[in-house]
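Summary: Need help interpreting a holo structure output

Steps to reproduce:
1. Submit the protein chain below together with the SMILES for 2-acetamido-2-deoxy-beta-D-glucopyranose.
2. Request a joint structure prediction with the ligand placed.
3. Inspect the C-alpha cell block that comes back.

Expected: a single structure record containing both the chain and the bound molecule.
Actual: see attached output.

Input attached:
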Amino acid sequence: MARPRLALALFLLALCAHVHVLPVWSHGDTGSTGAACLRNVGVKLQASFLPGLVTIDGLAADWSSVSGSSFQLNPALTDDSANAYPGGSMQIKVAHDGHDVFFLVQVPGAYMFDANEQNMAAMALMFPIGDDATYHNMGGCPEPAGVCNSTNCFGHEVDLIHFELNQAIPGRLYGGNLADSINGTGRDSIGKLNDAYAFNPHCRSYDGMTPSGLLTGGGLNNWRGSWTHSTTDTAYGLVATDSPFGALDGAGTYTFEFARPLRTSDVLQQDAQFTIGSTHGMAAAFWFPTGANSGWQPYQHYSASCDWLQLEIISGASSSIGTSRSWSALSTVSLLVSLMSLAVAVAVGWWVRQSTGSRVSFNPISSSL
Ligand SMILES: *[C@@H]1O[C@H](CO)[C@@H](O)[C@H](O)[C@H]1NC(C)=O
Ligand SMILES: *[C@@H]1O[C@H](CO)[C@@H](O)[C@H](O)[C@H]1NC(C)=O
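--- attached output ---
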C-alpha cells in the first residue's frame, strides 16, 4: 500500500510543480506572446454557507461579517500594472445559502453618467465551463469570428455575467425576466444584466443565441443583481426619472451584488455549474468610462487577476460544528421548559380535582342569568 501512495504523492507533487512553471498569459488575444503572468494566481475566494444574510439590493452593509479579498485592477489585455485602474482596488466577497451563490463586488470610482452613452461603469464575472476553457482569450478557442461554433470550440466555453449600469435603477433587481425568458435567451433587455457565454473574445453571445447572432432558444438568464453608488440615496426609493442617480463625478464606491442558483437547467454548455464542497474557476472585470463621461470599448476593461481565481463553495456541514453546541443548549432549555409546564399542568389538574370534590360547586351558566 505504501508504494502506490508514495508514487501518487510524487506524481501529484510533479503535477503541482508542472502547473506552477506553466506560463500563463493575460486576457488579451495576442496569441502566445507576452510575459508569464502570475498575478493573484491561486487566490481562493471562499463562499461560506450563510443563509438569510444577504439581500440583493446593491448595498453592502449586510456583508459586514464576511471577509473579502482585494485585487488591484490591471488592464485585462496587457496586465500592465503601470496602467492599473487609478480609482483603487476591487473588493470581492462571496457566500452561498445552499441554493444560490452570492457575490459582492465593490470598486471605488466617481459617479459617471451620460444619457447618450450606454457604456458607463460595467461589471462582469467569468467562469470556466469546458475542460479546455482558459482565462487567456476568454476560453481560448482558436477559431475566428464567423467560424467558431459550439462544435469546433467544444470544451472552450466560458460563462459570463455582464452588467451595464445606465438603464438600471440603483437598488432594483435586474437579470432574468419574463420577456427574455420566453425568447429563451440570457439577454436582459430591461436592465442590461446579461447572462452570456464565449469561446474567445470574438465569439461571445447571450445564452440561447449563437455568436453570429442567431436565436437558438433554450437559454435562460439565471442571474439577478443590483447596484448602487455611494452617492445615490436609496432610502426613499428611486424611479427612472431620478436618473442620473448620483452627483456627477461624485467620489465614492460602486457596489454590485449578484446571485445565481448553484445549478441551472442549461443543456447547451453555456452556464457554469457549481457544487457545494467544490472549487471552481472565476474572474472579475470592470469597465469604466475613460474620458470625462465618454464610454469604453469592450476590450478596455480591467481585471482582478491574469488567470483563474479560485471560488470554493464551502459545505454547511463544515461550519455547523460551531452552531451545533448552541442548538443543543437551546434544546436543553426547551426540554426543561416543557418538563416544568408538564409539572405545573399536573399540579393544577390535581388541585382542581381536589377542589371540585370539596368546596367549588359547578354552576351551569343558565342558572346564574
Ligand atoms: C461548426 O462549424 C463547422 C465548420 O468549422 C461545421 O462543420 C459544423 O457543422 C458547425 N457546427 C454547428 C453546430 O454549427
Ligand atoms: C424576442 O424575439 C423576437 C423575435 O426574434 C424579437 O422581435 C423580440 O425583440 C425579442 N424580445 C426580447 C425581449 O428580446
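--- end attachment ---

Reviewer comment: The pocket of 2-acetamido-2-deoxy-beta-D-glucopyranose (ligand 2) is lined by residues 179-180, 183, 187, 189, 215 (CB under 6 Å). DSSP finds five helices and 15 strands in the chain.
Status: needs-info
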